[in-house]
Every structure is written in structure tokens, then in C-alpha cells.
């Protein structure tokens, strides 16, 4: 009974952290994702690593780095259980994921200013791109969006027009 309660409390504690983002088991791992492996009752096997540019990480007690990019989250969890099952009896494994960021490049057309935003969730990225953006958003995307409307001729030239009028009025006053 104590063991069940401690496992339940440990799972509650681990899932309440801000480091892990709950995602569907069909999420496909890629370089830049951070995976955290927790082995219940075996803290020496716990690890947290970013998937390298080559798609590999190191698993506890294994000599070689393993390629995991392209695996779904659920198949990675099964893979980890199989690999750790070679070195320990019946490992109880929990995998957490911090996905790679989504970058949104906002180009404000009226002022011609470009702002870069980092989004940690798809909902946050969707709020940055605006309601008119209809394409699908994935973790790791870099999205470029134009915001607003292009300035009109008057918006671009009003200072020149007023300056020209002021010069003409000044010339007219001086000629009188």
C-alpha cells in the first residue's frame, strides 16, 4: 500500500512540473526536443537530455548513443523500457517531453518592423500568427506572418507633401 501511494505521489509531483508538456503519444521526436526519463525506484537511471542534431541521446548504462529522432513518443517509451530491461528487471519507466520551440516572425507592414517571438505551445504560436493564419502549426516550425496592411501612398508621403506646401506658401508670401 505504501509503495502504491508513493508511486502515485511521485507521478503527481512529476506531472505538475512546468518542465514537461503533456502531448499526444503520436508526437514525433526530433533534434531540439528535451526528453526526461524517470525510472521509478531507480533514481540512478533517471536522465534528462536534449536530442542532438544527429538525432541521438545517451541512455543510462548503455555504451553507445541511440538514434531516437523520428520515433513517436509512445514507441520511444517502449524502446526505453526494452533497453533498460536489459540492465534491470522490469523497469517502470515514465517519459516526459519538452518539445522544441515554435518561432513566429511577425512583420508589421505599417511600420516595417520585424519582431521574433518564441512559442512553447501550438496555442501560443496560433495567438502570435493571428486568426487569419490557416496553415497547420507543428513544433519546431518557423512561421513568417505579415501583420496589418501596407501603408498607403499618403501614409508614406504625408510629410513630404506638407513640407512642399509649406515651401510653396513661403515662396508665395515672400514674392508679395
What is the helix content?
25-40%
Mean pLDDT rating: 84
In CATH, the homologous superfamily of the largest domain goes by the name wza like domain
Provide the number of structural domains: 2
The strand count comes to: 8
User: Would you tell me the structural class of the helices and strands?
Assistant: alpha+beta
CATH topological fold name of the largest domain: wza like fold
| CATH architecture annotation of the largest domain | 2-Layer Sandwich
Number of helices: 4
Shape: rod-shaped
Structure, explained:
The protein is α+β, with helices and mostly antiparallel strands. It has two domains: 2-98, 2-Layer Sandwich (wza like fold), CATH 3.30.1950; 101-176, no CATH class. 34% of the residues lie in helices and 23% in strands. The chain contains four helices and eight strands, in the order H-E-E-E-E-H-E-E-E-H-E-H. The protein has helices spanning 2-16, 73-85, 122-129, 153-175, and strands spanning 34-39, 47-50, 56-57, 66-67, 93-98, 102-108, 113-119, 142-147. Strands 2-1-5 form a three-stranded antiparallel sheet, with helices on one face. Strands 7-6-8 form a three-stranded mixed sheet.
